Amino acid sequence: MKFVLILAAFAADPTIAFTTTGGILGTATTTRASTTTTIIPTSPSSRGTLLRLDAAADGVANGTDKKKVIVLGGDGFCGWPTSLYLSDQGHDVVIVDNLSRRNIDTELGCDSLTPIQPPGVRVSAWKEVSGKDIKFVNLDVAKEYDLLVQLIKDEKPDSIVHFAEQRAAPYSMKNSKTKRYTVDNNVSGSNNLCCAVIDSEVDAHIVHLGTMGVYGYGTSGGEIPEGYIDIILPGGREANILHPAYPGSVYHATKCLDALLWQFYQKNDQLRITDLHQGIVWGTNTPQTIKDERLVNRFDYDGDYGTVLNRFLMQGAMGVPLTVYGTGGQTRGFIHITDTARCIEIAINNPPKAGERVEIFNQIAETRRVRDVAKLVADQTGVDVNLLPNPRQEAAENELEVSNRKFCNLGLDPITLDAALFDEVTEVVNKYKHRCDPTKILPASFWNKKRAEECASLDPNSVKIKV
Ligand code: NAD
Ligand code: USQ
């Protein structure tokens, strides 16, 4: 399957050109090939970027078997659009979620900028729009072990996609309660999943969402390989081992612990496991979630759960100076939400064989430095860039070079940061800006006492939105 990016105004604008293998599209850097048939606007009224989707390329439409897929954490930011995408591709999807993310919103006194509907409304809207069923099961993967085993026995999934973790680094560093919750929830959930696959005697392929943060950022001394690194042991013996873990938060540490669990259960029980080391996801809607307002994806903008590019796009649209931490010298990997869903399907379609070591992919499109991302947004929106004291204990500057060859070799043609695609997010923000609580925009979690003291002057009430 191929997606292609086009600008709605291309016919009228001679400065905008297509490329087939990547390069410059108009004045914005982007990559997409262009053999598509169907056009799906990112919003019914969009005059900006369109995402085109050729339904006849991979997945079931391309002759791949229809799969039964359980999506753990399928109510979340990545899980919901992935569930719809897999369903749209003809797979049979069961969502499992304990709605803990929605409860954390209540705990933090904030909410998704977009008005996400309850799971029941979401799945019936999808049925109405697509004619396809998605089952929703409210279950705690970390605590309700027997129900999890029974569900796997009943559904006999081919694949289980595991998104069901506490995923915010800042929330995981808030206090000892959130640190302990993050470890308990994430590590127990992953361990339960392995045990449940073994106990149910269903040969399901586990596809886990890991993070680029397991590697540390730029600690390899060169390009970060996909999961495994060649080393020379004392005595000169060559080996290829899991890349050393170097987490930067309690959350990232849980992903390192997960990686060890995957390695152990693969070795001991021949489980088939794929670990996807994903970068920061940006964007909001996908060609599926845009089909009906009741399907809208969640949009986190607050200091704990909002991730950097979506936060900057939201701030830009609301006339709020961009919240760059420190010098903005951190380099990170990025991927668009539409590609998250695509990568999951590619992983599902390419499981390791029984007995093969854990398959690891780096799920990113590109790397960018935070201050460069801020400049891109500031240039487009005219807002100022604010350099704030850094609430995090992290390197002020880092280089990052990452291999993503495995996904590209399997047909991913990744979407890269593109000012035209920013319009989709800006449109969403403008539509729902009345739902924003500006007091939630500044950082609210600090990595240690020193960082908290350095940030003491930040006043949440000082942030004003331009109406
Ligand atoms: P999210 O918080 O929006 O979604 C996670 C979902 O899992 C939520 O709906 C939550 O209710 C559910 N959940 C959590 N613990 C659970 C449990 N014990 N039982 C059942 N359900 C549970 O997060 P997201 O942004 O969709 O991220 C999904 C996964 O992708 C995470 O594992 C995260 O580490 C990984 N990831 C996310 C990003 C990103 O930028 N968002 C980047 C890289 C990796
Ligand atoms: N940052 C700012 N200003 C902000 C927000 C963040 O300068 O307003 C900086 C941070 O200091 C950090 C970088 O931007 O250096 C990225 O922060 P982030 O919150 O966007 O991303 P992170 O905390 O790393 O976590 C997110 C997801 C997590 C996922 C991870 C992928 O929440 O689930 O695992 O991205 S990665 O970063 O590749 O490890």
UniProtKB/TrEMBL annotation:
SUPFAM superfamilies: NAD(P)-binding Rossmann-fold domains. InterPro entries: Epimerase_deHydtase, NAD(P)-bd_dom_sf. Belongs to the NAD(P)-dependent epimerase/dehydratase family. It comes from Cyclostephanos tholiformis. Keywords: Signal. It comes from the Eukaryota. Residues 69-354 form the NAD-dependent epimerase/dehydratase domain. This is NAD-dependent epimerase/dehydratase domain-containing protein. Residues 1-17 form the signal peptide.
